[in-house]
Each structure stands twice: as structure tokens, then as C-alpha cells.
């Protein structure tokens, strides 16, 4: 009996020891937890940074085109594009299959379609609506289709701070990461660098970094080829030219021009309107008469104005009938390139046609229409020159009868 009691006491004693150890361990855990809540963060105490935590959770942080730090999923396969030109860049990167929604302009049916990326991808019209065009998004519609990331082009002419604030507001309303960037242009080096930076940022988001570099290299090589063909032409032998009827937020007449029209820059033509600055300009007809360029090129998007737009003006306005280009039948049509921002593939294609007209001996190996389809195929995946041109009475890359 005494033996059994001793055995019982030992069992009880061991049980008490185990219970004490459990209680002590719990207190230690609570103390550590309290320290993390009231003092340093768990990541600080463990030596794990926020970036490491993002990586562990399948996310990463990038800096967008307006200096915002945005954390996005590591593997993005569902996006929406907001703002003018944003979806065009996604097509350039061959990531259009990632799209899950589009803005109102992408869904419109139009007799005139000047966007090669849309012609090459008619399925884009069938996606759900995310809001109105030019970045006027509907957060509720975006939330309903659950993209992983919202890609957004900034508003031209708006400050970095304002564009960044717009992106933050949309991100806060939707709870979805917003990666924003400027659209850029090919008019000067600063704006060209914006294009390249934006393509690289978008490439990071959708896993198309290599394609982004391909696009950048193609643009550079094409511009260099154009420049090499004409760089040694003496200033005194460079042709004078004017581009009229340039589309800008819609179609316009003869006075609508681009003082820094890239094709003229690349083939070393003398743009008679170059003194008007770098941005789009409307000139006085009297100025065009005074300049009297040897060649006039017409953006055939002008046909949307009615009465043949700029072409009708050259035919019917007696103040323009004395222009040398009109009398000498040196008026030519080029493909519209400003349609929901700039279609860079059309700008590059136009440059080869302009070069062929002004300096045929320097471009004798070039068939402008074939070259255009080569360029369109690279950028948007299909040779759409004829499809575009047919909408504008096939006046592109031809002498326009007046």
C-alpha cells in the first residue's frame, strides 16, 4: 500500500512539472508577441524586409512612371487598360490576351478606324466595359471584373503630382494596384525616353520585358535607317514640306499641322511650320501661302470633317490655288496617326512614304505599302495597311488629284 502511494505521488509530481512548463512557455510566447505589437515589427525582429515579405507572398514592388511605389502580384495575367493609348502599348507587347475589360472608345463602331491595334484585334470590342474613354473610369465596373492590376496612361499636360493623385484615388476606390505612366512621343529625346520607360514598366507588370526591349530596339533601328538615308543631303537641297489636316482629338482641316512632324525630322525635310513650336498648331492660311512649300502632305483622317476636309479646301479655296504644290501636283496622302493618342507604327510607315516622295533615289529599295505592312505586322501582329487605307478612299501613299 505504501509502495502504491509513493508511485502515485511521483505521477502527480511529474504532472505538475509538465503543467508548469506549458504555462511558462505560453507566457514567453505572449511576451514576444507583445514586444512585436508594442515595439519593433515582426519583420524587423526577424530581419525580413517588406520587399522580402512581398516576394514570399508572390508579389513584388515596382516604381511606376510617376514615381509611385506599387506592389503587384508576381504573375499578372488579368489587367485593364485605362487612358488614351494604354491598350495600344499592351498590344505592342503582345499581351492583349491579358485584357479583361476595355473603355467605351474600344467598344465603339466607327466608319473610320485609324487604330491599327484595334483593326488587328477586333475581339477587344467584346470585353466588359470599365468606364468612359480618356481615363474616366468607373471603379465599380472595374471591381466587378477583378483585374489583378490596372494599367493607366497619364493625362497629357497634367503635372506629375496630379497624375499620381489620380492613380492613388483609383487605387483607393478599387483596392486594385494602379500602375501609371506617361505616353510620351517621338518628337524629342525626352519624350521618346518616356515611351521607352513606359514600355519597360508595362513589360515588368505583364512579364514581357524581352518584348519591350524588342519594340524599343525596332523603333531605334527604324529611325536610324531613315536618318542614314538622308543625313548627308546638303541643307540647300533639302525639300520644303507641309503636313496639313492632322488629326488631334478629332479630324481637322488644312490649317491643322505638326511643327515637329517626326517623318519630316527623320528624313531631313524642311518643315515650313517648324517655327510654330513643338506641339500641334493651327496656322493661318495666309502663312501657308507665304511659306509656299514644294510639297504638301495631307493626313487623310481629314476626310472625317466632311466635304473632303483639307483636300476639299485645296480644291475649292481660291486663296490656296496658287500654291506651288497644288499647281505642280505635289500633294500626297499619308495615313492618320493621331487616333486616341499616337499610333507610332503609322508614324514610322508614313516616314518611308515621305522619304520616297521627297528623295526617291535614297529610297529606291522601298515599296512604301509593303514597308508599312512590315511595320504593322511587327507592332500589332497583322499587315493592316490596306484595311486602314480603304476606309479613307485609298488616298494614303498616293498623289491626291485636285
CATH superfamily of the largest domain: Nitrogenase molybdenum iron protein domain
Gyration radius, in Å: 31 Å
Largest sheet: 4 strands, parallel
What is the architecture of the largest domain at the second tier of CATH? 3-Layer(aba) Sandwich
CATH class of the largest domain: Alpha Beta
Strand order of the largest sheet: 4-3-7-8
Basic shape: elongated
Instruction: Give the % helix.
Output: 40-55%
Number of domains: 2
Order of helices and strands: HHHEEEHEHEEHEHEHHEEHEEHEHHEHHH
The unreliable regions are 1-13, 20-48
> How many extended strands?
14
| N- to C-terminal distance | 127 Å
Protein name: Iron(III) dicitrate-binding protein
Biased composition (Polar residues): 33-48
Region (Disordered): 31-54
Pfam families: Peripla_BP_2
Could you characterize the architecture of this molecule?
The structure is a single chain. This protein is an alpha/beta fold. The chain has two domains: 59-224, Rossmann fold, CATH 3.40.50.1980; 231-399, Nitrogenase molybdenum iron protein domain (Rossmann fold, 3-Layer(aba) Sandwich), CATH 3.40.50. Helices cover 45% and strands 12% of the residues. The protein has helices at residues 2-38, 42-46, 50-56, 86-92, 116-120, 139-145, 160-174, 189-206, 209-230, 262-266, 285-291, 309-316, 324-327, 344-358, 368-380, 385-391, and strands spanning 59-63, 69-73, 79-82, 99-101, 131-132, 136-137, 149-153, 178-181, 240-244, 256-257, 270-271, 281-282, 295-299, 331-334. The protein is elongated. The relative contact order is 0.10. Mean pLDDT is 88; it is low at 1-13 and 20-48. Residues 33-48 have a biased composition (Polar residues). InterPro entries: ABC_Transporter_SBP, ABC_transptr_periplasmic_BD. Residues 78-362 form the Fe/B12 periplasmic-binding domain.
Amino acid at each position: 500500500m505504501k509502495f502504491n502511494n509513493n508511485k502515485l505521488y511521483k505521477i502527480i509530481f511529474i504532472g505538475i512539472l509538465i503543467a508548469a512548463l506549458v504555462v511558462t512557455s505560453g507566457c514567453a510566447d505572449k511576451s514576444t508577441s507583445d514586444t512585436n505589437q508594442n515595439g519593433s515589427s515582426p519583420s524587423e525582429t526577424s530581419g525580413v524586409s517588406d520587399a522580402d515579405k512581398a516576394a514570399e507572398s508572390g508579389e513584388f514592388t515596382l516604381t511606376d512612371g510617376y514615381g509611385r511605389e506599387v506592389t503587384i502580384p508576381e504573375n499578372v495575367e488579368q489587367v485593364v487598360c485605362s487612358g488614351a493609348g494604354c491598350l495600344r502599348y499592351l498590344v505592342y507587347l503582345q499581351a492583349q490576351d491579358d485584357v479583361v475589360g476595355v473603355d467605351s472608345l474600344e467598344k465603339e463602331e466607327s466608319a473610320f478606324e485609324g487604330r491599327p491595334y484595334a483593326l488587328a484585334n477586333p475581339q477587344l470590342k467584346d470585353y466588359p466595359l470599365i468606364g468612359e474613354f480618356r481615363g474616366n473610369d468607373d471603379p465599380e465596373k472595374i471591381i466587378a471584373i477583378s483585374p489583378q492590376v490596372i494599367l493607366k496612361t497619364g493625362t497629357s499636360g497634367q503635372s506629375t503630382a496630379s497624375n499620381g493623385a489620380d492613380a492613388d484615388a483609383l487605387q483607393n476606390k478599387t483596392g486594385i494596384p494602379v500602375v501609371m505612366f506617361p505616353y510620351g512621343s517621338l518628337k524629342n529625346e525626352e519624350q521618346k525616353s518616356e515611351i521607352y520607360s513606359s514600355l519597360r514598366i508595362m513589360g515588368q507588370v505583364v512579364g514581357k520585358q524581352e518584348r519591350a526591349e524588342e519594340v524599343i530596339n525596332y523603333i531605334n533601328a527604324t529611325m536610324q535607317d531613315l536618318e542614314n538615308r538622308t543625313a548627308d543631303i546638303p541643307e540647300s537641297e533639302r525639300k520644303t514640306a507641309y503636313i496639313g489636316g492632322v488629326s488631334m482629338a478629332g479630324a481637322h482641316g488644312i490649317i491643322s499641322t505638326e511643327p515637329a512632324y517626326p517623318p519630316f525630322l527623320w528624313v531631313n525635310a524642311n518643315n515650313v511650320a517648324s517655327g510654330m513650336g513643338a506641339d500641334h498648331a493651327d496656322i493661318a492660311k495666309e502663312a501657308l501661302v507665304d511659306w509656299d512649300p514644294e510639297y504638301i502632305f495631307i493626313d487623310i483622317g481629314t476626310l472625317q470633317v466632311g466635304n473632303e476636309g483639307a483636300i476639299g479646301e485645296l480644291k475649292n479655296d481660291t486663296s490656296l490655288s496658287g500654291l506651288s504644290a497644288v499647281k505642280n501636283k505635289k500633294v500626297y496622302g499619308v495615313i492618320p496617326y493621331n487616333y486616341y493618342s499616337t499610333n507610332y507604327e503609322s508614324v514610322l510607315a508614313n516616314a518611308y512614304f515621305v522619304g520616297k516622295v521627297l528623295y526617291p533615289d535614297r529610297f529606291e529599295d522601298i515599296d512604301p505599302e509593303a514597308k508599312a505592312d512590315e511595320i504593322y505586322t511587327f507592332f500589332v501582329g497583322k499587315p493592316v495597311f490596306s484595311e486602314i487605307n480603304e476606309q479613307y478612299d485609298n488616298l494614303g501613299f498616293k498623289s491626291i488629284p485636285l
